[in-house]
Specification:
This protein is of the alpha+beta class. It is built from 4 helices and 7 strands, in the order βααβββαβαββ. A hairpin with a 2-residue loop joins strand 2 and strand 3 (67-77).
Amino acid sequence: MTPKSAEPISTRPVVESDYDWLYRLRREGYLDVVKRQFGSWDEDLQQRLFEEAWNPAASRIVVLDGKPVGMLTSEERQGNLWLDEIQVLREHQGQGLGSRLIAQILSQARDQGLPVRLQVLHENTRAKSLYERFGFREIERKEHYFVMEAP
């Protein structure tokens, strides 16, 4: 799969002051999916889950034209490169940014000789389809999500 856009994108480290912006990005990206899957969005629960998952060391802010447009979280876990999150602001979706980030992760994993794994909520069919186009296959079905892997 070849991503659409050739505009230069870069990443920068996540810092503590990014916390609120990243929560808003997560809310924008997951609100509809969580409502479809669980019936509602519990703001207190979602804020608590975000706080528990907060891991600046494994996360990067995606930057386009000097502005933050998304985030990427990945880390090596148990012999895999675990792709925990890719999120892109709604107004930048459909331009190939997510595809370019996935391609970068797959390239990094190949260089390290590692498979890439991730999980995706059952109702996040758009993301699951994107991952499948990159060769990810479902290796496990959990109660709320699929575990997928790309060699």
